[in-house]
Amino acid sequence: MKKKQPQKQNSSKSQEKNSSSLKLGDMLNQDIMSQLRQKQQELNAAEVEKKAAQEEKKRAERKQREKNKSFEELLGESNLNWKNYK
User: Fold this and answer.
1) 3-class DSSP assignment, residue 4
2) pTM for this structure?
């Protein structure tokens, strides 16, 4: 059996741990952070607008399909039991 050798601690590893505990916000100045936050808000707003536009487009397409349905298609989709009315 081999004897366990004591592990050597490098001062560079401890410095890496300290530097990794720093946050990105700590490293950047406040101007850059405010610009990044503003850009993030703009991107979120653009994404919301894009989703709204897609929903509106889908709604318009459904309305157009509903408008162009034939009487047979409308009758087939009806939930009413027409035998009750004979």
Assistant:
1) coil
2) 0.48
